[in-house]
Amino acid sequence: MHLIFRTLFTFLRSRRGLRRGRTIGHYDVGHLRVRTLPTDLDVIGHMNNGVYLSIFDLGRYDLLVRSGLWAEFSKRGWYPVVSSETITFRRSLRLWQPFVIESRVIGYDHKAIFIEHRVVVDGEIYTQAFVRGRLKKKSGGTVSNAELHEVIGTPPDGLEVPEFLLQWGSDVALPNTHTPAPSVWSKR
Questions:
Q1: Which of 88, 110, 126, 165 is the right S-S partner for 119, CB 3.0 to 4.6 Å?
Q2: 5, pLDDT greater than 80
Q3: How far, in whole angstroms, is CA 92 from its chain's centroid?
């Protein structure tokens, strides 16, 4: 909830950029300039590790809005959800420090979209995350890759998810929602 205003601001800023012709292609790298705010910090004084994943939501929103996909998906009753994500930290962000969120689609597996996010300061990668997501239908069910590619076109040649990410996506997946997934840590 603490990012709701920043999220709304990002939507408005991205829509304004879209109206001014600052569009990007579906497979281009999105760049979103932001700054570390007091609400992003932990008790040590740097950006809290959990905030990064919320900040990367902003990068995905900007990517979707400026590529025109947000409007297209909304028209069809589709919405994105995250199924798994992993993050690696290299350097810390401090209060008021400006940085760029870089976001891009890196490919697909048999049912999901993979997106890479980076926090970049002065050309240096501070943090990198990989997100595996799906598109859901408000009417129920998920959007298949075939349906998605009908809307956005065939992915460009050379777009390939690295093998380690495909394996990771498979390794960390929980059972689908129609299959039991009991927690067996304790029997209270």
A1: 126
A2: yes
A3: 20
Using left for φ > 0, alpha for ψ between -120 and 50, and beta otherwise, residue 60 falls in alpha
For 49, phi then psi, to 5°, come to: -60, -35
Q: How confident is the model at residue 20 (pLDDT cuts 50, 70, 90)?
A: confident
For residue 187, name the pLDDT band (cuts at 50, 70, 90): low
CA distance 132 to 134: 7
For residue 142, which phi and psi values (nearest 5 degrees)?
Answer: -115, 155
* Tokens of residue 70, six digits: 């947000």
- Which residues lie below 8 Å from residue 99, measured CB to CB, with a gap of 6+? 33, 34, 35, 36, 93, 119, 120, 121, 126
Which residues share a beta bridge with 142?
A: 136
Listed in sequence order, the residues at least 6 apart from 79 whose beta carbon sits closer than 8 Å to its beta carbon are 73, 135, 136, 138
Closest of 135, 114, 137, 103 to residue 30, by C-alpha: 103
| Exposed/middle/buried for residue 119 (C-beta within 10 Å: 0-12, 13-18, 19+) | buried
Residue 120 confidence class, pLDDT cut points 50, 70, 90: very high
pLDDT at residue 168, rounded to an integer: 95
* pTM beyond 0.85: yes
